[in-house]
Amino acid sequence: MFEFITDEEKRGQVGIGTLIVFIAMVLVAAIAAGVLINTAGFLQSKSQETGQQSSKQVSDRVQEVATVGKVTGSPEKVSIVNVTVTQAPGAGEIDVHNATVTWIGPSGTYQLIANSTGTFDKLGSGLQGKEFGYQPVKDSDGSSNVLNDPDDRLNLVFDVDTFANDLTEGSEVTIKINTMAGATTSIRFTVPESLGNKEAVEL
């Protein structure tokens, strides 16, 4: 015995099938949209983090204010170099104690770190081999080793004969100061050709 399906029943079956396909498509689209939103959020977060790190590597650096050498001995030579630094424009906090310094001079290249005891009051006092010291010059909030204000001034002190040969007349030196953020400042100077009868010279 044959069962006849009316046109209305056929249309109903087709409609149900279409509805199932439509619901499946909506579910797939919703899942795909959720994945895309999560991926976009992750990529945005990573790009912001990368951008901030890149910005710090460019801006969080020190800027040279003045460089002075102390003259000693006979014949005269520069035995201590005193570099006054401040924040570069747009820089954030800079902890000088965590900075590293590359000294490139006539007698070689040396990697220097901050004196482990921190600041010191007397030039050339307490520095060991391959160390530099620092002295606050202008510091409004007592953060002696941190440059956190455009008005802050800090002296970086290099007792040259603790890690290299003293600087004679005409010696050329490059000092590269690398902050914890990865930003580098290069300071270049040449010792004057005449040091006679001088206690200090501008470099």
UniProtKB/TrEMBL annotation:
<protein>
    <recommendedName>
        <fullName>Flagellin</fullName>
    </recommendedName>
</protein>
<dbReference type="InterPro" id="IPR013373">
    <property type="entry name" value="Flagellin/pilin_N_arc"/>
</dbReference>
<keyword id="KW-0472">Membrane</keyword>
<dbReference type="Pfam" id="PF01917">
    <property type="entry name" value="Flagellin_arch-type"/>
</dbReference>
<feature type="transmembrane region" description="Helical">
    <location>
        <begin position="12"/>
        <end position="37"/>
    </location>
</feature>
<keyword id="KW-0974">Archaeal flagellum</keyword>
<dbReference type="InterPro" id="IPR002774">
    <property type="entry name" value="Flagellin_arc-type"/>
</dbReference>
<keyword id="KW-0812">Transmembrane</keyword>
<dbReference type="GO" id="GO:0097589">
    <property type="term" value="C:archaeal-type flagellum"/>
</dbReference>
<keyword id="KW-1133">Transmembrane helix</keyword>
<comment type="similarity">
    <text>Belongs to the archaeal flagellin family.</text>
</comment>
<comment type="function">
    <text>Flagellin is the subunit protein which polymerizes to form the filaments of archaeal flagella.</text>
</comment>
